[in-house]
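Morning F.,

Quick status update on the modeling queue. The single chain you submitted on Monday has been processed. Sequence for confirmation:
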Amino acid sequence: MEADRRIRVVIVGGGTAGWMTAAALATLASGAARVHLVESAEIGIVGVGEATLPHLRAFITRLGIDEAAFMAQTHATFKLGIEFSDFGSIGERYIHPFGPLGRPLAGVGFHHYWLRHHRAGAVPPIGDYSTGIVAAQALRFARPAADPDALDGAYGYAYQFDATRFAPFLRAHAEARGAVRSEGRVIQVDRNESNGDVTAIRLDDGRRIEGDLFIDCSGFRALLIGGAMGEAWEDWSHWLPCDRAVAAPCASPPGGIEPYTRAIAMAAGWRWRIPLTHRVGNGYVYASAHLSDGEATDALVAGLESPPLAEPRTLRFRAGRRRRSWVGNVLSVGLASGFLEPLESTSIYLAQMAITQLIEHFPDARVADADRDGFNALVDAEYDRIRDFLILHYHATRRDDSPFWNHVRTMTIPDSLAEKMALWRETAQVSRYSHGLFLEPSWVAVYLGQGIVPDGWDPRADLPEADALDRALAGLHGGIASAVAGMPDHKAYLAADAA
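Structure tokens below.
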């Protein structure tokens, strides 16, 4: 009988990151990998990140998961974007959508034409030219049409779901495709004396599990990448000072279900509101240097629509990432690799991105330097770009009503972000890159939503006659309103979808 030549992959830690990794490898790399996941029931799941990005849709589709089954199991609702309140200034709000703002013309972004129109006089907010934003505000939803150029197809969607139910759902999927699970707590890591690679992990019941590639999904504990391999942590807390969160669910209010996540700025951070089919998820992300745990809990409970359904739970974290996410034969995914607070719902995306890159760089008989280097370069670039985008939400503020907002408004920011902001202010241009998260529409939404209006725009936007531009914008505005008026209520759509 021919020997099994597949690489032995040992995943340390379950939760969302661990079971996403196991499900993906068991589905997409079953011919190259034998998947063995080790987790301990004694170690709980963080499980408060309930909002996602559209990329998760592609992930579950690629794994062959039925969307309706996934949504029913996780009490999911649809998400068209994130509404930010009081970030630029108290009383202001805007939605960061999953899709374009307007339509480009002659290779020039729509926002350049809008800026020209805005300078000339009264004009509807730029969000009124986004199908996704208008639908979100109207509490309406329909899956986008197949034609992305049509007004009823020019938007994307994500999910809001119960994260504690996602990992068990993925576990069933992974185990049905050959992944093996062992219950146990890792108490020792064996390493090769000559090259430092991990050879096996030892569990508290005496079992020894050998492997060729080890994936650290042990969360903030980072048992392998931080503990065994000693990979340094790059601390970003001086730019992203929020280091704690208190979370508590409450009952859903009567009426409609919002197809978007809310982020409401608070005195020392911000508060989230995530509507699910069976409850509402709430949390206050804050900087402990400016607010005590007790004060944060009191502020969260005071803002709830109904009494909490569970005792508020406090979590501690710090922003940053490992210098390298793949060292030797140990690769880290999720919180073991890095953490960026949930302001833009990026945690699950970052795990998914690492899993995707792992599959793209999956080793043959041994781990090659080129695989590691390529993986680390892509992961580092993604973390760095998302870091800058999150800092923008804090730094681009006119608030001076609390020590926290005074700090983030006046702090020194990374050169990479300072250059992006200067380019926008002078020319209304957004720094471009071909891959990664948060492309031009995302930056435009936050810049304009938080009051950073540039001094100029692309001169080609001055070419159309004023009357022609007025008619074009009015037609687009009316067309979007008409398309949204034909969509069903979000709550009704969810009920029909589940029937």
